[in-house]
Queue: 2 jobs
Job 1
Amino acid sequence: MKKIILSFVALAAVMTAAAQSNVTELYNQGATAMNAKKFAEAAGLFEQVVEEGMTSEDPTVMQQVENAKKYVVSSYRSLGLAAFKAGNHDEALEKLNVALERAEEYGDNKGKTGVNAIIAGVYQAQGGNAFNNKDWATAAEIFEKGYAANPKNTKMANWLGTCYCEMGEFDKGTEILSAVAANKAPRAAEDAAEAKRLIALYTNNRVAALQEASDFDGIVAMADAMIAADESNALAHKVRIQAYMSKKDFAKVIELGESAAAAQVEDEDKSDVYFTLGAAYNAKEMKPQAIAALQKVTSGANVAAAKESIADLSK
């Protein structure tokens, strides 16, 4: 009986060694295919390594399995990237989505991030024609997928924000544009500046429409939402006190005036806020405060009017 047991042990050892040898052979074949840029073949071989070596306790095989997981993701990513470069967007997304599934399955967060960045680039390219043709709805539908994959693609985020604003979904658009505008990364500087320009453009357009309808409460609500999303939004602070001024809610202008002025970046904008604040103080017959505010109007179109008002108030 002892000899039989020993023979079983020996047989198991032989089988284990054979399995380990097979995994290593597959791994080496995968590496050869990958070096030759035969990525479809490499992906299949490395997936076999993962499947057959998953339960092994041999340190060499365990390491090969971990490496193979990354190479599977990398191989499918390379297939997707090649299709993307060739202009085959549907094929690119098919391969890249497999890469993404494998990255998620294997817990490869770095690989997942890299694949998502390429997926976003494919959707950006796909939506480009619709965007250029001002087919905002179609472009938005495509860019939404890319933005979900990689919100750090600031150029595409600007395009998506533009689509929403053009479709009248101002809050959704400015939320995305504000995120880009707040991006401090050097590589995003150009897109951040463009986002700020777009925010100003669409905010002013919406304010103009609301003013034409005498909907000053609508302007206040819009500004409140923008400030809630970004407390440092200078334009929203300025627009809000101007709306309160149009409503002749002078107490609210006085309440918010200094904080609105402090939020401004440009001297001209700061002066405009102080001019509005001075007018509110004047309306409330608070002459010293009105003069103090108007004296801070040092640049822009209201300088002459501020000086005239100061002269009148000082009589």
Note: Confidence is low (pLDDT under 50) at residues 1-17.
Job 2
Amino acid sequence: MKRLAVASALALSFIACSSFPRPRLLGPTDAERREYDGAIATARRDATQGRARLASFLERHPDSTLADDAVVPLARLEVKAGKSEQAEKRLRDVLRAHPKEDRADAVRLELAEILTARGEREAAWKLAQRIQPSLLSDDERRDAYRLLADLARDRGDTAAQLEWLARLRTAARDDSDVASVDREIDTLVARLPADGLVRAAERLGRRVPAAELWLRAGELSLRAGDKAGASRALAEAERLPLQPDEAQQLVRLQSLLQSGRGGPVDRSSPPPPPLSQVEGAQNANPAASVSGSVGVVVPLSGPLGKVAEDVLRGVLLAAGSFGGDPNAPGLRVLVRDSGGRPEQAANAVRELGQRGDVSAVVGPLTREEVEAAGAAAQEVGLPLVTLTRHEGVARDRAEVVRFGLTRRMEAEVLADHAVLGLGLGRVAILYPKDEYGREFEALLWQAIEARGGRVVSVSGYEPTATDFAAPIRRLLGPQAASAPTATEALEDPAAPTAPGGPPPLLDFDAIFIPDAHDKVAPIALQLASSQVTGVKLLGPSGWHHPDLLRIAGPRVEGAFFSSGFDPSHPSPLVQDFVARYRAAYGVEPTPFAAQGFDAANLVGLQILQGAHSPADVRNGLVATERYPGVSGVTSIGADGDARKRPFLLEVRDGRMTSLE
């Protein structure tokens, strides 16, 4: 019986073993290695022959431990040759046969990228999450982190997106790549509420930028009056390695927490109405009828010299320096050149504050100058009315008033008009991959969705790009034909993408392009040449330039954009300013001239209403409600941040026309 049992066991063992394939060798044979190396060498010289030799290797040696090595370069070559379905099948076959080989994760990465390109993002996400980045090459690891970050973004999982961007940051090739990822992270952090920041920071652990997230969460909690949340966030930040600026921010926020300052700010009130709907919009400027002194600190000798000159001209016009009796009362203007240097700007503010006869300072322009000048303004107790666009510069600086138009304001008025005004519920975004473009892309996305619309397609291009064919193809999706080059579009703007072919199927109603006019014009031409018709183009104030019409012509007909100033606006206040500015300087006023004019007028208005000291002027400024200026209706809150209503213009019959 015992011999029979043993024999039966051996028979069962043989049958069981015969039902599985024979075990593979521990490594490739010498012949396999030579054939594989030869195929790789051929592929480096000739893609077509390399594809054939790699495919032959896989067919001859499907069980080789080099199969996963061979399928990755083969799949890449096949995707480039337009054979992505064939590449996908090969990758899946090898992954099933070799799920634990050393290049299996590279196979998963290639497969996930194919799925992503085809729009199967959920399947790509599930597959990509199984990738072990430590088993990839350096370049592949960066590709995997970028893919996972983008897929997380598409899913709306900002915490996961930040985690993968943080990993991408640690794997970056050089400082420029780190800076690029940091800008992307900063844009995301600026969009997150306090609870979202906490979730993302908890997920990051001690990895950069966890400290930045905890500090931002603490700041938002302080502003909302949530002292418990702020205390926890700042305690978490204190446990992490901090950069010098982060350490300074931590000390500042802890001081605010201990002092009980930094409470909630009321942002629930609606934005100011259009200028045409405000009473008093026909009043003459008050600054010409008062006596006093206002300082102007702008970079006249720096790279922003032209902008600074425009601001100064606006201030001088408001102060009554032209077109009137030179002996009549008016604001005295004391001009100081900051030279574009923060310390020089700070010294100028200190000197003006120590005079004792200056009520306020208009300027500077850049964020760096404002930071330095704002600290000096605090020292001498002098209101600083800065024209910068950057949010937050007035935070924790009681003397600083930010008067400039921000990108958020522009994004919100554009979204209002697109979604609520025109019913354009599906929007695509084509943006430059720089700080300006990325911030606008994020802000408009947020504003569109807040109004019930959807961003259905996004594509970026390098800031230095002159040809936008590839970004346009990505925007249109895989069904798009080849877009014409910029040269082809300029030579024959009416030529379609594929002569006689059908136009692309568009799943959006509008395209937002956050760039300057000199980039928008060739983009508009290439869009038209790609048969992208019947959609609205919209953009920010960078579009507001006559050369847009000169270059793009009818291709931007019907487009609309925001602006800090509209010289075509029908308001008598605006038309009077335009006429006076032309008479004084012989040129057309710019948005910066309009802002300088309004800032000086607001200071003059406080003096006219009885402000006797710089403190009185500052208190009057932060109580401003619905001030009808030529640069838009403005309200200023106790936090020193102005809320303005940007203008909207439309290209109509070949002209830039006010939408009010």
Note: The radius of gyration is 31 Å.
